[in-house]
Amino acid sequence: MELPVNTKGVFRLGILISGSGSNLQSIIDKLHRGPSGIEVALVISDDPEAYGLRRARRDDIPTAVFPLGDYPDREEHDIAMADELEKHGVDLVVLAGYMLIVTPALLDRFPYRVINLHPSLLPAFPGASGIEDAFVYGTGVTGVTVHFVDEGCDTGPIILQEVVEIQYNDTVDSLRERIHAVEHRLLPRAIELISTGKISFDEKNPRRVIIRD
Ligand code: GRF
Predict the structure, then answer these.
(1) Mean pLDDT of the region 78-82
(2) If DSSP codes are grouped into helix, strand and coil, which group holds residue 179?
(3) Where are the domains of the chain?
(4) pTM for the whole thing?
């Protein structure tokens, strides 16, 4: 399979969000219109009230809203989003706090071009409440994962992971804060690694991502 690499001098991101967009902000601050040619070409939200949309507009980044309820089913919803992403010439789709499952209707149009950020050390604690689930379970460590998206829920090949320790006096909020700080570093790093062609797959085990850095 062919991974997206910046060969044209510009590498266009389509970022999908559902809420605050602090990870979108870290991508804007660290990568957008910087020396690496990475550009946030489009921000999509399923929620018209998502604060991340304001962050994008503040930087004159095009936005689009696709509420799930406006479509007969998830496939139609994802086809409309994929059309919009293609219209904006997006090289890589980044799920940065996007809370809906993405269906093959979109994934098949962007093979190995969709990545997701998840706030746990996958495969532990997949799903919508990874931080809370690890905390309640009582693990000593949790963390952050950036992975390619496949049809499952948080199951695609892992690109980067970083451990976050859970301290005995932590609350869910204090843990969330430290996890977010790691996310804000890890996601831009993964995007840079992909855009500069430093990522490939182990020929013998296509789940295994190899990083040449
Ligand atoms: C992040 O913790 C991400 O891992 C999870 O949703 C959260 C989004 O945060 N999927 P933000 O909207 O980027 O602030």
Answers:
(1) 98
(2) helix
(3) 10-111, 116-213
(4) 0.97
